[in-house]
Automatic annotation (TrEMBL):
Residues 1-20 form the signal peptide. SUPFAM superfamilies: Autotransporter. It comes from the Bacteria. It comes from Prevotella pectinovora. This is Membrane protein. Keywords: Signal.
Length: 160
């Protein structure tokens, strides 16, 4: 019985800590690895990238984001991307869904606009630091079958 009460109290405290982080007026920064050899697209075998995000909670649970990234893709030129997006924290314990759009530029004149979806979870390691695994889908406007991508992203976020 005591174990159940203790677990319930810990779960309640974790929920309270997480909910305080998604309040209006907080800033957010994130660095992440993308692809991690788990992404898939028709034109690439290996894909590994890095991405930086900055955000601001414009309302409780609603975040506006800006992002920049670089990816190395085997058999395809390296790519640079900039974009904007938004994130909604579905439940107060850290589950979120994001929408974004990126302008992607690569060598050999490759340019693409890629709207995307992301579903992830913010695991709090402390009061303001998180580990954020997510799955994503980026839709290529230029060539859906070769450049659209499904993948895994793992990031470290800080809520200020």
């Amino acid at each position: 019985m005591m174990k159940k009460i203790l677990l319930l109290a810990i779960g309640f405290l974790m929920t309270m800590t997480a909910s305080a982080q998604f309040e209006q007026g907080k800033y957010y920064c994130n660095g992440s690895l993308t692809g991690i050899n788990l992404s898939y697209s028709g034109a690439e075998k290996l894909s590994l990238g890095v991405e930086a995000k900055g955000g601001y909670l414009v309302a409780d649970n609603w975040m506006a984001l800006v992002m920049a990234g670089y990816s190395h893709d085997e058999d395809v030129d390296d790519k640079f991307a900039v974009g904007v997006g938004g994130r909604y924290y579905i439940i107060q314990n850290g589950l979120y869904m994001g929408l974004n759009a990126r302008l992607v530029h690569g060598g050999s004149g490759y340019n693409d606009i890629m709207p995307g979806l992301e579903l992830g979870y913010a695991f709090f390691l402390g009061k303001s630091v998180t580990i954020e695994p997510s799955v994503y889908y980026d839709q290529s406007i230029k060539n859906h079958s070769d450049y659209s991508k499904v993948g895994l992203r793992i990031g470290v976020g800080v809520y200020l």
